[in-house]
Every structure is written in structure tokens, then in C-alpha cells.
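Researcher: Let's walk through a ligand-bound prediction step by step. First, I give you the protein sequence. Second, the SMILES string for NAP. Third, you return the three-dimensional complex as C-alpha cells. Ready?
Model: Ready.
Researcher: Here are steps one and two:
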Amino acid sequence: MQAAGFHSPGPPEVLQVMDFPDPVPGPGEVRVKVKAAGVQPVDCAIRGYGFSPPGAKLQYPQIVGNEFAGIVDQVGEGVEDFQIGCEVIGWSLLSCCAQYVVVPRDQLVIKPRTMPWEEAGVLSASGQTAHTALKELEVGEGDTVLIHAAAGGVGTFAVQLARAWGAVVIGTASPRNHDYLHSLGAIPVAYGEGLEDRVRELAPQGIDAALDAAGEEALRASVNLVSNKERIGTIVSFDLSEKLGTVPIRSKRSAARLSELTRLYEQGMLRVTIARVFPLHEAAAAHRAVETGHIRGKIVIAIN
Ligand SMILES: NC(=O)c1ccc[n+]([C@@H]2O[C@H](COP(=O)([O-])OP(=O)(O)OC[C@H]3O[C@@H](n4cnc5c(N)ncnc54)[C@H](OP(=O)(O)O)[C@@H]3O)[C@@H](O)[C@H]2O)c1
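Model: Step three, the predicted complex:
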């Protein structure tokens, strides 16, 4: 099969389409013919400096990508809940920008019929991170929540989930994304100098919880705005979080969590924003786009 991989870490150009052996599903595993996969900042860190995500070990040449959607084309022994031809969404570390991926059957859910492949391919990483974070911060009805980097991959899902669960959301983004944040149901606010004052003006009732998907400046502002540190989470600034006593959050992916996202999608309460779709042979350009740090929603790699 063909996949986007790299022989040693480096700039986006090290990513190339290469031939790899076709993966074969073992007992309890499913092989999926991939139609679309997502790119996240962590994929760029893996490719850029050989970052090894918890639970994974790089093996060169190393395939990239950790979320996908596609069609089941082989099932291993003992798998009864997925059949050949099922349209699925799933996740797997370091393997998804490829024509085929093999995953344990509990890392898959059925794709909603109405969901286009490009959207399905980019739901399971950022979507589950946003879901994990808001659950850990216990965001719900009556809360006013501040979400930093609200227009990005994680932020776009976090805004919508918090709204679906009854919260008022204030989201940070540059002014070019403010209409977009409005369309997701958030009150937009520009990041940068003066952020805390602008937020206080928008939320005289106070901020109950905050999610930092942007970096240290956002986390420091959150600590000045939210009194309960157990309701301030970061998915980015782990060292600073330890010093400040806030909540470090790492995505906890599960089929149950992903199913909740697909259910919300089917109910029209969650949408997927695609910034751009790249073919597999332009995987390097897709990584370059994510590395700008200014993507609205998600970058997709379409795979034939
Ligand atoms: N811990 C975990 O399990 C986990 C999981 C997923 C992601 N992450 C991390 O979380 C971060 C966000 O991920 P992502 O996929 O959402 O990234 P992303 O899609 O690349 O984020 C892009 C967004 O960031 C916004 N942005 C840039 N600088 C900003 C700033 N100073 N303040 C507020 N917003 C800013 C941009 O908005 P403008 O264009 O308007 O500036 C853009 O919409 C990354 O660092 C990623 O590595 C962690």
C-alpha cells in the first residue's frame, strides 16, 4: 500500500508517499480502506522532531496520521460487530495517512450516512480532545466558559459541545475569525494585550471555566479570570499548568465518546469545519498548512 511517511524527522518536505506492506488484521482487529485522514499539530511534532506520543514508538520509515474514516475491507477472527463494507470512523496513532489501516475493533464507530468522507476523517482526534476537556472541566448548563483558540481544530468542536451542553461560550480568535465564532454560537473576543479586560466586559457575571488550547498567555489569563483552578484546563501548557495548579488534559479516546460526537452530528448540533483538503501526495503541504497555527477548523488528506 501507499502511505505518507518519513525516514527521519525534519521539515514538511521529509514527508513522502512511500510503499509499505499491506497491514493484515489479527484477532479482534479490523482493516479499513482509508478515504480521508486528518492532520493535527501533534503530527507535525512527530514529523518535525521525532516527538513520540505516549503509548507509541516511532519506527522508520514512519507513517503519520492518527485519525481516519473509511470502509471496512477485512475483519480479523472474532470480530462480529463490523462487516466488510461498513463505513466507519476511527483512530490509531502513527498510521492513518495510508491506503489501509488496521485497528482494534473498539477504535471504530459507524459513520453517519449523511456525513461526507472529508468531515468523517477529521472528527475523531480534535473532537474527542474537546469532549475530554469539557467533561473534565464539568462544563454544563448555566456555565460561562472561556475557550482559547476557539476557531482551531479543537476549539471549533469545544465551542459547539459547550453550547450543546447549555453553556455560554466566549471564544478567543483573531478578528478575521469573529464572524465564524458567532456562527458556532460563541461570543468572540480578540486575543492579545487587554484580553482579560475585554472578557470581563463581555461577561460581567464572571467566567466559570476556561480551556486553553492556545498556550501560556492564555493559561495565565484564565487564572486571572476563573477563581476555581479545578475548572481551568490546558491541552498545551503542561509545565506552566503544574506551577499554577490548573488541570492538564490529555485526550482520552473511546468508541463511546466518538459515538456521542456522531450522535450530536446527526442531531444537527455539531458540524465539522474543513479549511482545506489535500491529496495524499501533498501531505507535506497539508503539514505546512497546520504549522501556520492559523487554520480554521481542520485540514484533511483525501486518500483513494
Ligand atoms: N493534550 C492533548 O491531548 C491535545 C490534543 C489535541 C491538540 N492538542 C494541542 O492543542 C493545541 C490546539 O490544537 P488544534 O488542533 O486546535 O490546533 P490548530 O487547529 O492548529 O489551532 C489553530 C487556531 O489557533 C488559533 N490561535 C493561534 N494563536 C492563538 C493565540 N495566541 N490565541 C488564541 N488563538 C490562537 C488560530 O486562530 P487565529 O487564526 O484567529 O489566530 C487558529 O484558529 C495544539 O498545541 C495541539 O498540539 C493537545
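Researcher: And what stands out?
Model: Residues 127-248 form a domain with the Rossmann fold fold (CATH 3.40.50.720). The two ends are 11 Å apart (CA to CA).
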